[in-house]
Amino acid sequence: MDYINISKQELLDWLKNNLNEERYEHSIGTAEMAVELAQKYGENVDKAYIAGLLHDCAKCFSNERLLSIIESENLDVDETEKSNYKTLHAPVSAYVAKTEFGLTDEEAISAIRWHTLGKLNMTNFEKIIYLADKIEVKTREPEYAQPIRDCLTGPKGLDKAMLQSYKETIKSLVDRNLKICTLTIDIYNYLEDLINVK
Which long-range contacts (CB under 8 A, 24 or more apart) does 88-92 make? Predict the structure, then answer.
């Protein structure tokens, strides 16, 4: 299979052995949604499938193991991100994809790295992996995912869907009395400007 050093079956076997059942289903769903979005927006379908499959490959590692890999491999993770255990798997998944499976495509590695928090100035491919994770149909709740899916029409569909996703995330954080990292606010404001520019 292009982009990685092992066969599709070997990769699926590894994921099955290293993820719980729901996370494995979610990974398949994300890969399938990534392919659908890549076709729609003219991105590389094979690359999207691989990045979708691998985006959560470290999700079931313990927090101790995630932090240990981040420290020992000197991964670029700031202190704010380190304090949120729910997002630690993203930089480690990118690292595992690169070292364990030989993923060499920098855009695919970056898409895996930023699929949780996102970043400013994401490429269309990075947006596709980000969104595929949020709206895949196998495990995501329709009431959360459908409003995002509904935005994927007309001009600026990807950016509108990204903005809707950030709106949902911010609402959820506020409802749960959780902190909102400054990057999330910066991306939200950036997307608002991007969509509403005359």
Answer: 88/63, 89/56, 89/58, 89/59, 89/61, 89/116, 90/55, 90/114, 90/115, 90/116, 90/117, 92/58, 92/61, 92/66
The CATH superfamily assigned to 8-141 is Hypothetical protein af1432 (1.10.3210.10)
Residue 148 φ/ψ region, left for φ over 0, alpha for ψ in the -120 to 50 degree band, beta for the rest:
alpha
User: pTM of the prediction?
Assistant: 0.95
Tokens of 96: 């595992």
Q: Which stretches does DSSP call E strand in 10-117? A: none
For residues 191, 30, 117 and 188, what is the CA-based torsion angle, rounded to 10 degrees?
A: 20
End-to-end Cα spacing for the chain: 43
Tell me the pLDDT tens digit for each residue of 48-74. Answer: 999 999 999 999 999 999 999 999 999
